[in-house]
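Throughout our pipeline, every protein is held as a single compact record rather than as scattered files. Such a record has a labelled line for the sequence and another for the backbone structure tokens. The remainder of this section carries one protein's record, kept here as part of the documentation:
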Amino acid sequence: MEKQYTREKLLTTAAALQRKLGSAQLCIIDVRPAEDYAKGHIPGATHFDLFGLSLIDTAEAPLNAFMFMIHHVLELRGVDENKEVVFYEDNSGMRAARGLWFLDYYGHSNVKMLDGGFQAWKAAGAPVSTEGTPPKSSSFRTAARRDVLATADDVLQGLNKKNIAILDTRSRGEYLGTQVRAARGGAIPGAIHIEWTDNLTPDGKFKANDALGAMYRQAGITPDKEVISYCQGGYRAAHSYVALRMLGFSKVRNYIGSWKEWGDRVDLPIEIATDKK
């Protein structure tokens, strides 16, 4: 059965999360840098900084090994299929989005981001702790959802197809090739550029669905298409994945090898986009 996504299923608020603090069926994961966690965090949250864990070869063997590793580390943080899992960082950021995407890939049915992150938590006057919470390891069954992940081969096969939209979520400099972060600079041919930060309001929360939908429609990203998002290493792409799922897009994939893999592979086509703005 196809999974149904709504904004309410993907995001939680500071008020809603505060009401659940202390529940044995809740697993809160702080994905900020360790020094930020040490200065103060949501009571009961365990720490796991996802940043820097990237895959640069989406061939079958390294892909499977990478996804096995992430699954194992999440188990060590207490994740199992019977708990609601909430990821958070300073705002509604890309690290928390990538945590959500990983669990979506593994088939977890109840995973959310804290909208507005720790900033929203503090603004709500919610309690803050400096006590480290050692995680209790657990185990959870996976039902890998290959349909939410894209490899380099998937992207290559999707080029020039009218029913597939390639979404570049990087900075404008990366998209235009003026900021080079791989062997080559540029973009995947035909990619539509909407930087991931455009999903957010100035206070670090996701824009309302109406505003998000209008932004994507104007750029040609519409729900009738399959969307493959990419960035440098699958973080910013995961953020736009979440935004599109909130809008009810039924076919969205995160190309987790992203530009680091694509730009380094000289056998893959690129284009140098022009700045039309």
